[in-house]
Amino acid sequence: MEMDKWTFGFTLMIVGMGGTFLTVWVLALVINLLKKIYPLASDSGEKKNA
Amino acid sequence: MLDAILAGLSGMMAGFNFLFQHGLPNVIMLLVGGTLLYLGVKKEVEPLLLVPIGFGCVLVNIPMSELGEAGGLLKLLYDMGIANELFPLLIFVGIGAMIDFAPLLENPKILLFGAAGQFGIFLTLLIALALGFPALEAVSIAVIGACDGPTAIYVASQYAPQLLAPISVAAYSYMALVPIIQPPIMRVLTTPAERVVRMGAIKRSVSPQTKLLFPIVVTLVTGLLAPKGLPLMGTIMLGNFMRECGVVARLTKASENEIANVVTLFLGLAIGGTMEGHAFLKPETMAIFGMGFIAICLDTVAGVLFGKLMCKLSGGKINPLIGAAGISAYPMAARVVHQEGLRADKRNYLLMHAAGANTGGQIGSVVAAAVMLSVLKGMGLI
User: Fold this and answer.
1) How many helices (H) and strands (E) in chain A?
2) Which residues of chain A are under the pLDDT cut of 70?
3) B121 contacts in A (CB within 8 Å)?
């Protein structure tokens, strides 16, 4: 793909930064989902102490 | 007989002759190697890396040693582990085994700081392009802003191997200088009221299952969105999965100790071996060091500004200082944030929150590099 350096630079910046935010946002959503599916058992800390 | 003795002696003097006749770059690099050793030993600046790098630099700049040429030890190490990206990936397994992602998992939205802290990469890319570097060299230089040595080495060794030495030395040097570079920027960009925001204690809310599934999920999501970076993310998450699954303690310990130590030694020596005077001392090298510095400053600026935005959006519940920890450089950036928090308020303990942002930065830096590589692949440039 032929493009001048500024088109290349700004494209990579916009898509790269956007892609980075999108990816970590998806990861944050998935982590929240995991936490909902596998909540921390409320007594796990107490069992350990006991 | 006398001729043979003189010929033998001339062989012993060849190194000195070379130094006197055209060895100025070697002399300068011997001094550079000595400086790296001084910084590593006396100042304890990233000693695990600067000592082997410095020593490798000294070795390769001794004339006639041929250590950096085909068949030489340093070239052999380079071909074994850098030319094929093996060493940075093995180090990533060790890093994954060392990192506890719990503070990040407790508060997943903090992961966004890890993305904001990568903004310097992309602005530095524009600067490198403006200075006339070709596209792939500019990308490799910009990745210094990931503040993550293995990622910088991984990208540079693939797409700008001729710049590997200055890029890797700049990446590790600036990571070591994070405690000096970041605090002034943090103070300029935040108000005293913002610096004393207390975030409270982190409530324990992550189950062992979540911690176990986290590395698998991250591998799948990032692998699907940015497959070119999968070697980086896959190895770091392999190390973390071994840590969390708890059934391969020997492998985990070997990854974070023996393997990481041996590979760090080889990696450092091999990088030092690329610092041969005639190849290293070029205007491009100074430009790369300058841009590396700018990249880390811009990362910090973007991280803190994003922290201010999150502070506003959260109604003042997030201390903007933790944005500075989003730049990877794990765990140094988290400590810097904690120290700055304590400086503003002696009872403000930001360490766990900063550690969460910092581990987010570790992920963010790899994601940014992976996304960049995948975009380049999409453009047909790699």
Assistant:
1) 2, 0
2) 1-2, 43-50
3) 16
